[in-house]
Specification:
The chain is of the alpha/beta class and 374 residues long. The protein has 2 domains: 234 residues, 3-Layer(aba) Sandwich (Aspartate Aminotransferase, domain 2); 121 residues, Aspartate Aminotransferase, domain 1, CATH 3.90.1150.10. The chain is built from 13 helices and 15 strands. The longest helix is centred in the last third of the chain and has 19 residues. The two termini are 30 Å apart.
Length: 374
C-alpha cells in the first residue's frame, strides 16, 4: 500500500455512511450558507473545546485576521509572533498594517521561547500570537502571566493542536485555543479535524468580544444591512460543517491513533544517535498533527532524499524562518538562533489515523538502513 503523509481516503471509507448522510441532509435542506448544520457544529465544538462562544469562518488564515481586527489595534502597533511557523501567523499581522516582531522558539518543543518573548516586548507591543506547533501547547502559564503583566492581547493559533490539553501547575486543564483572548483554528483537510475544503473557527470566552468577532466575519453587521464596523466576508459553508460535525465525534479516536503512531516511531528511532525524537512536555498533551524529528550532523536533506527513493514521503515544516522571507525583510526580530538551526534539521514523517504496523516498520527500517552508513 502506498504510504502517504495523510490518507484521507481510508479515513473517509470508515465513516462514509455517516458523512454521506450528513452532507445529504444539507443538500436536501438547500441551506448551504449559515444553515442549521453550521450552528449544530458550532454547538458541538463549543462543548468539546470547553469554550462558550464559537464563531466559524472560511479558513484558518481568516480566523487569525478576524481575531486581530477585533482587538482595535492601530497601524504600526507591534505584534510578537514566532519566527518558526507557517507564514499565515505573520502575514495577517502585516496585512493589517501592524508590525510583526519575530521571536525564537525552543529547540526541544519548537514552540515560542519565553526568554525571547520577554526581551521583544516594547512600548509598541500590543499583542502576542502564540502558535501551538505540531500538536503540542506552548508554555501558556508563563505566556498568560507575561501578557497580563504587560497588558497585551493574546491570540492562540491552534490550527495544529486542536484537542490538545494544557495542564496548569495546579492540575487544572484547558484545551488549546481557550486560554487567551481569542483562539483560532483551521479545518484544512489535512488537519486533525479537517473538512473537505477550507474552513476555520475562532474561540472567544468573552461574550462581547465574541459578538464583535461574529460581526467582523459577517461584513461588520449584527443586523442585516446595518454595518457598524468594517468587516469581511468569511463563512464556513454548510457542507463543510456537515463533514466536521461527523468527524468531531471521532477526534479523540483520531488523536489516540496518531499518538500510537508516534509511540511506535519513538521506540523504533530513539537509539539512532543522529535523530532526536519529539519531546513530550509535562504541561501539555501532544496530538501529533506532525511527527517531527530533528536530524543532526547535516544529514536531514540526505535522509529526505533517501526516503523519497524508497517511496516514503516526508516534509520539512519549515525550511525558511520567517525573518528571512523577502516579504518580511523590514521586520524586527530577536535572537532567532534556534529557529535558524531547526530550519536545517526538522523532518516530519508520515503520520495519520490509518497507518498500520507494516508501513511503520518499513519506514523505520529505511531510516535505520540510512544511518547504518554513518
Amino acid at each position: 500500500m502506498k504510504i502517504k503523509m495523510v490518507d484521507l481516503k481510508l479515513q473517509y471509507d470508515k465513516i462514509k455512511e455517516e458523512l454521506d448522510a450528513s452532507m445529504q441532509e444539507v443538500i436536501d435542506s438547500t441551506s448551504f450558507i449559515n444553515g442549521p448544520m453550521v450552528s449544530k457544529f458550532a454547538d458541538n465544538l463549543s462543548e468539546y473545546i470547553g469554550c462558550e462562544n464559537i464563531v466559524t469562518c472560511a479558513n484558518g488564515t481568516d480566523a487569525l485576521q478576524i481575531a486581530l481586527m477585533a482587538l482595535d489595534l492601530k497601524a504600526g502597533d507591534e505584534v510578537i509572533v514566532p519566527d518558526f511557523t507557517y507564514v499565515a501567523s505573520a502575514e495577517v499581522i502585516a496585512l493589517l498594517g501592524l508590525k510583526p516582531v519575530f521571536v525564537d522558539c525552543r529547540s526541544d518543543s519548537f514552540n515560542i521561547d519565553i526568554d525571547s518573548l520577554r526581551s521583544a516586548i516594547t512600548y509598541k507591543t500590543k499583542a502576542i500570537v502564540v502558535v501551538h506547533l505540531y500538536g503540542q501547547c506552548a508554555d501558556m502559564e508563563s505566556i498568560l502571566t507575561i501578557a497580563k503583566e504587560s497588558g497585551l492581547f493574546l491570540i492562540e493559533d491552534t490550527a495544529q493542536a486542536i484537542g490538545a490539553d494544557f495542564i496548569f501547575s495546579n492540575g487544572s486543564k484547558a484545551k488549546a485555543g481557550t486560554m487567551g483572548d481569542i483562539g483560532t483554528t483551521s479545518f484544512f483537510p489535512s488537519k486533525n479535524l479537517g473538512c473537505y475544503g477550507d474552513g476555520g473557527a475562532l474561540f472567544v470566552n468573552d461574550k462581547n468580544l465574541a459578538n464583535k468577532v461574529k460581526m467582523i466575519a459577517n461584513h461588520g453587521q449584527s443586523v442585516k444591512y446595518k454595518h457598524d464596523i468594517i468587516g469581511c466576508n468569511s463563512r464556513l459553508d454548510s457542507l463543510q460543517a456537515a463533514v466536521l460535525n461527523v468527524k468531531l465525534k471521532y477526534l479523540n479516536d483520531y488523536i489516540e491513533a496518531r499518538q500510537s503512531v508516534a509511540d511506535f516511531y519513538d521506540k523504533s528511532l530513539r537509539d539512532i544517535y543522529s535523530i532526536i525524537t519529539p519531546v513530550n512536555l509535562r504541561f501539555s498533551t501532544h496530538v501529533y498533527h506532525q511527527y517531527t524529528i530533528k536530524v543532526l550532523n547535516g544529514l536531514r536533506d540526505d535522509l529526505k532524499l533517501f526516503l523519497s527513493e524508497k517511496g516514503i514521503p516526508s516534509m520539512v515544516y519549515y525550511p525558511i524562518p520567517l525573518h528571512r522571507q523577502l516579504a518580511f525583510k523590514d521586520c524586527k526580530f530577536e535572537n532567532v538562533n534556534n529557529s535558524e538551526d531547526l530550519s536545517k534539521e526538522v523532518l516530519s514523517l508520515p503520520i495519520h489515523t490509518e497507518m498500520n504496523e507494516e508501513q511503520l516498520n518499513f519506514i523505520c527500517s529505511a531510516i535505520h538502513e540510512f544511518f547504518e552508513r554513518y
